[in-house]
Amino acid sequence: MSDDERNLTRRDFLRRAASAVAAAAVGLPVASCRAAREEARLAQAPATPAQAEAPARASVVLVRDEAAVGEGNAINFDVVGRMLDDAVTALLGTQDAASAWAQLVKAEDLVGIKSNEWGNLRTPPEVEQILRARVLAAGVPADRVRVTDRQARQMLADCTALINCRPARAHHWAGMGGCIKNYIVFSDNPSQYHPDACDTLATVWDLFGVKKKTRLNILLLLTPQFYARGPHNFDAQYLWPYRGILVSQDPVAVDALGAHLLRTKREAHFGEEQPITPTTHIASAETRYGLGVADLTRIDLTRLGWEAEALI
């Protein structure tokens, strides 16, 4: 039951109770008085836990800038740095970017920046450098900041704070490689998560306590690959200069929006959706494992910057 429905029900109770009491005053049966008292009691009773519980929501920021990517997909360091600053400021509601980064990491943290090194579409080194610089500016000593991908088990397992950052791309086994999947290398057997469209992928977030340690999820949409055919497929014709970044503290929410965006782009490009592994692991991350919010209707999206062909 919604808040509006519950409030309306209580108002109806009160209205009927008042009417019954007034009727009793002019000589109607005592039963009416009892009914009035009961309805008034129910109207004033607190909501039950089931009534009070509302579905979880997630906040996500999409920031775009036409100048973020230049000739040859070159990353504009200053522009992307400003985009990330604007995104975390909007996400956390702080007065400035410095306050936002300082809210995400503390000087005493051992900070791990989980990157992605897939050769054809890796986390750009410029983005890694920006994130490291922001963590250092927040007061974390240089020897307490680590940046890696495939050495996550060895280098990041003991970190107290994690920043999860990778590009979005169509993926043979998962439908989309995103923030949920970026932690698969915390497992010593990543391929075990491939069956059933990577349906159990969210369970990697139980390894080494990474779920509670992750302070920020960054899904890079600077040049996402919106379509692929077969394992490890890269095709430059399907790179899309979207020039955007999705940021959230909820990995499921950024992936849900990212998957929706890539699917919408495929439909626009081909005229219909193409045969591709469905991204059902994202819904399972919410419904089976409670990792975050996959339902687009429960994601509060803030849009910043360039709006051309945003598609979401």
Oligomer status = single chain
User: Structural class given helices, strands, pairing?
Assistant: alpha/beta
Which percent bin holds the helix content?
25-40%
Low-confidence stretches: 1-43
DSSP strand count: 8
How many helices? 11
The rough form would be described as globular
Distance between the termini: 29 Å
Spell the H/E element sequence.
Answer: HHHEHHEHEHEEHHEEHHE
Main beta-sheet annotation? 8 strands, mixed
Q: Please, what is the average pLDDT?
A: 87
Task: Write down the Rg.
Answer: 25 Å
Strand content: 15-25%
Number of domains: 2
Model description:
By secondary structure, this protein is an alpha/beta fold. It has 2 domains: 50 residues; 248 residues, no CATH class. The chain has 11 helices and 8 strands. Strands 1, 2, 3, 4, 5, 6, 7 and 8 form an 8-stranded mixed β-sheet that branches. It starts with a helix and ends in a 7-residue tail after the last strand. The N terminus is likely disordered.
Characteristics:
312 residues, globular, 2 domains, alpha/beta
Furnish the topology, listing elements before pairings.
Elements: H1 3-25, H2 30-44, H3 49-52, E1 58-64, H4 77-92, H5 97-104, E2 111-114, H6 125-137, E3 145-148, H7 152-155, E4 161-171, E5 175-177, H8 195-198, H9 210-213, E6 214-225, E7 244-248, H10 251-270, H11 280-287, E8 299-305
Helix pairs in contact: 1-2, 4-5
Summarize the structure.
With 312 residues, the chain is α/β, with parallel strands linked by helices.
